[in-house]
């Protein structure tokens, strides 16, 4: 994993981010709701980056990309809904289908948690994983998350409401 690095999302990532999202769209949409067709265009990705960086500038988000040494994006990770007063944030990540099962999600989650503590002094992290996303559940548990509760009909995938699990990780975990 020496060839893997995690950096903050930037406008320079737009073309590679579009490729990553388009290539993995069918895979991602089996686990998370679709972002809609407009997102998967050059202007849609630029708008998304702008929104992420604006939230970052307001200490409400930490948007990260996971890259191979060549600059190829192979994953994303972020803290969102950052609440500095409460010391909490939600964590999310998505990994290129070709790179699953290689420890990239665990690496990304660990790095993102460390950044949350270092940059924002966060004490609580919240994550959501679908009941069927066993791999994501294992990554969360491996990073000290504990199951908090089941969230029935939490989101809609391909027109079907799905149940999710809410996980929490407190700084003393």
UniProtKB/TrEMBL annotation:
Native source species: Vibrio paucivorans
Which Gene3D superfamilies does the annotation name?
A: 3.40.630.30
Organism lineage reads as: Bacteria, Pseudomonadati, Pseudomonadota, Gammaproteobacteria, Vibrionales
Keyword annotations from UniProtKB, A to Z: Acyltransferase, Transferase
Give the record's family classification. Answer: Belongs to the acetyltransferase family. RimJ subfamily.
SUPFAM superfamilies, per this entry? Answer: Acyl-CoA N-acyltransferases (Nat)
Full protein name: GNAT family N-acetyltransferase
Q: Where is the N-acetyltransferase domain?
A: 4-162
One example GO MF annotation: protein-N-terminal-alanine acetyltransferase activity
**GO CC annotations on file:** cytoplasm
């Amino acid at each position: 994993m020496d060839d893997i690095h995690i950096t903050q999302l930037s406008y320079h990532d737009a073309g590679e981010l579009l490729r990553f999202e388009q290539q993995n769209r069918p895979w991602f949409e089996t686990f998370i709701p679709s972002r809609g067709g407009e997102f998967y265009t050059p202007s849609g990705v630029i708008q998304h980056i702008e929104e992420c960086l604006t939230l970052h500038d307001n200490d409400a988000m930490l948007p990260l990309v996971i890259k191979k040494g060549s600059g190829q994006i192979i994953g994303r990770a972020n803290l969102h809904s950052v609440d500095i007063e409460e010391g909490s944030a939600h964590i999310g990540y998505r990994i290129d289908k070709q790179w699953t099962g290689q420890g990239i999600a665990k690496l990304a989650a660990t790095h993102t948690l460390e950044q949350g503590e270092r940059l924002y002094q966060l004490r609580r992290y919240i994550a959501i994983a679908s009941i069927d996303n066993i791999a994501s559940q294992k990554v969360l548990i491996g990073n000290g998350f504990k199951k908090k509760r089941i969230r029935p009909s939490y989101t809609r995938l391909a027109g079907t409401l799905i149940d999710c699990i809410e996980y929490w990780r407190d700084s003393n975990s």
